[in-house]
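Page 42, continued from yesterday. The earlier attempt failed because a stray header line got pasted into the input along with the sequence. Redoing it now with the clean sequence only.
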Amino acid sequence: MKEQYRISDPQILKAVSHPLRVRLLGLLRLDGPATASELGRKVGESSGSTSYHLRELFKYGFIEEDDDRRDGRERRWRARHNYTSWDAGELSATAEGREAVRIMHLRQAEFVGRVMGEFDPGGWSRDWVDVAGMSDHIVSLPPAGVREFNDKAEALLRDLAAKYAGDPEARQVNAWHGAVPRSQEEES
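This time it went through. Structure tokens are written below.
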């Protein structure tokens, strides 16, 4: 699997921004290869619906057939990349690109909301409950400071993942970081 799929075409970003496609791609990345029926059961959709959206993900290069683990009756799909990236500044040069970036930001926020809503502290040890959650901070930074924050946060996550690889208490965790400037009206 390749590390990233870098998108520079707003049409491709819009294609993956469909809520069900984002979920299907995420499941294939996290849980590995699956059929349309298996994914349909996980997301509460019909296999016909998931099959259509999987074909769209295939058409735009996000997934491929998994020939290593063929199912006799149904195609098995796998993700082609660990993650998707795009240059928001580059895409925002056109109205179509700005809309695609805006929609993807909304999909990312919806995902965070869904994951946080599904977290049930009752099913986890006190250690996990104590560290799970989110923080928000309002600070004054220029774009260079936000870029530095993003770069350092990603580097720290990579370092920590390497440090704790193989730890028996390690679990997959959703870790987010983000920053957007407040509107002029909010600052007043």
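Notes: The first helix runs from residue 10 to 16.
Reminder to self: strip header lines before submitting.
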